[in-house]
Amino acid sequence: MPPARPAQKSLQHRTIASAVAEEVRRRIVDGEFKSGFQLRQDALATEFGVSRIPVREALMQLEAEGLVKILPHRGAIVSELSMEEVQELFELRALLEPRLLKASAKHLTEADYERLSQILQEYSTELRAKHVRRWGELNTEFHNVLYQHARQPRAQAIVGGLLQECDRHTRLQLSLTGGMERAEVEHAELVRLCKSGKVSAACALLKTHIEGVGKSLRNYFEEHNKTT
Asked: Which one of 84, 148, 176, 182 is least enclosed by Cβ atoms within 10 Å?
């Protein structure tokens, strides 16, 4: 029997899941669903008049974006989104990461540049495929490769923690603010500048890049708060 029917059902589920995700995302961002609010699959399915399958897919998508946490025995709850936290995290990153890049860049090897190129290619592919879960992971790996030769273990450990904490914020920034193309361009330029020996320019761009991500997130939520 040809597989057209199951494929059609799968496509339909994905389309419905996207619509459910969009509406739940809007309610979270607009403050209708507060931090800690429990998102019950059965209640959402009833409200939207759909089965639980696309609702579950929608919640998994929102978890990938950092808006929702899916916890054992509790189900899905709305993640806390603190603009004060965003500001502190990105200010610390902008302070520490250019320092690490300055110390590390001159020690990057051809193998390192090959890995950076691979990350950029995969990053581009995953952005266009909208595989949100991979965006933060690849972003973290990209930055860690750049800083790996800094020989500043304490600062590197702090930045490693900051990058992990910023993972969901990075995914949110790319998902909600249209920052995908800018991220691609700036990451590629960072690699080019380092490889050309223009370390000071690379450090300046890195600082601007990090500050830009934090600012775009703050601006997005400030604009949405004005409309609520």
From this structure: 84
